[in-house]
Hints:
The chain has helices at 27-33, 38-45, 59-74, 98-106, 122-135, 211-215, 225-247, 264-274, 285-288, 295-305, and strands at residues 10-19, 23-26, 49-52, 83-87, 112-116, 141-149, 167-177, 183-190, 198-199, 222-223, 256-259, 314-321, 325-332. By secondary structure, the protein is an alpha/beta fold. The chain folds into two domains: 4-179, Peroxisomal Thiolase, Chain A, domain 1; 184-332, 3-Layer(aba) Sandwich (Peroxisomal Thiolase, Chain A, domain 1). The two termini are 27 Å apart.
Amino acid sequence: MIDDREKTPSVMIAGTGAYLPERIMTNAELEKMVDTSDEWIVTRTGVRERRIAAAGEATSDMAIPAAKQALQEAGLDAVDLDLIIVGTVTPDMIFPNTASLVQSGIGATKALCFDLSAACSGFLYAQETARGLLLSGLYDNALVIGADKMSVVTDWEDRGTCILFGDGAGAVVLKRTVTHRGIMATAVGADGSLGDLLMIPGGGSRNPASHASIDEHLHFVKMAGNNVFKHAVRCMTEAGRDALAKAGLTIDDVDWVIPHQANMRIVQAISERVEIPLERFIINLDRLGNTTAATVPLALNEGIRDGRIKRGDILLMIVFGGGFTWGATVVEY
Ligand SMILES: CC(C)(COP(=O)(O)OP(=O)(O)OC[C@H]1O[C@@H](n2cnc3c(N)ncnc32)[C@H](O)[C@@H]1OP(=O)(O)O)[C@@H](O)C(=O)NCCC(=O)NCCS
C-alpha cells in the first residue's frame, strides 16, 4: 500500500481573494483629460472603465484584504503561513518590501517575505517561485499576491498609456499536496534587451529622483505601445503552447484561459492563434483595465466566485510584461 508520503507532491491553489478600490473612472472622464474618445478606447483596447485607489490607499492596503479573503477560503490561519510573495511594480515604498507590510497587516508572524518585480508577469513569476519553494519541501504553504496601484505611475497627460491602466489586488494561497495535480507545468521567459520598450525609468539607481526627473516625467510608465503589442502576442502564444506541451495536454483539455489583460485585441489575437474560443477566456479588462500584476489573480477569483471555474477544471494562465517577461502556467484547480 502506498501512503501519502510516497505520492508525488504538487502545489495546489487552496483559496483566492480580491480587492478593488471603490472609485470607478470611466472613459468619459478621460475624454476631459486628454485628446481621446470613448469610442477610440473601446475599439482599440476594450477598456470601458477602471478602478482608481484613493490618495491614501497604497498597494499593501489593497493586498491585505485580498490576502485575508484568500486565507479564509483556504482555511489557513495567517500565523501558519510560511511564505508571502507580492508581485508588484508599485510597492508602498522602496523598502520595507510590500510583503512585509502585508505580513504585519494580517499577522503572519513566521512568514518569509519578499516582493517580486516582473511588471505584468509579477503574479505568475511569484506563483512559480512559490511552487519551487514548496516543492523543495522546506515550506508547506504560501500566500502569493499580485497588486499594483498603477494610477500613481500613470502619466495622465499621455493618451497612449493613461487609458489602459487601473488599480487592484488579487491573492492566492498555495499549499503542497499529494491529493491534487495542482500546478502541472510552467513555461517562462525574459528578454532584457527589449526592456526599454516598456519601463518606468525614474526613481531607481539609474535615474534617481530629482527636479529634472520629475520635469521629464521619468517616474511614469513609458511604453512603445505598438511594439509591445506585437511581442506580447508572440510571446504569450508561444508560452501558452509550451506550457500545455510540458503538461502533456492539448487545447481541448483547457477549460479556462486566464490571460494577462492589457488590450482586448491582444487577447483576441491569442485566442485565434492558440485556437481556443474567446468564450473560454475569463475577461475583466473591460471593467478594470490593465491592473498589471493583479490581472490574473483578479480574473481567477472572479471566475471562481461566479461559478464558472470549478474544482478539477484545467486553467491556462498566460502573461506578458515589462522586462520583457512572460510565461504560462497550466493548473488543475
Ligand atoms: C497602446 C495601444 C492601445 C495603442 O494602440 P495602437 O493601435 O497600437 O495605436 P498606435 O500607437 O499605433 O497609434 C495609432 C494612432 O492613435 C493615436 N492614439 C494613441 N492613443 C490614443 C488615444 N488614447 N485616443 C485617441 N488616439 C490615440 C496615436 O497617436 C496614433 O495616431 P497617428 O496615427 O495620428 O500617429 C496599443 O498599442 C497597446 O495596447 N499596446 C500594448 C499595451 C500593453 O500590452 N501594455 C502592457 C503590456 S503588459
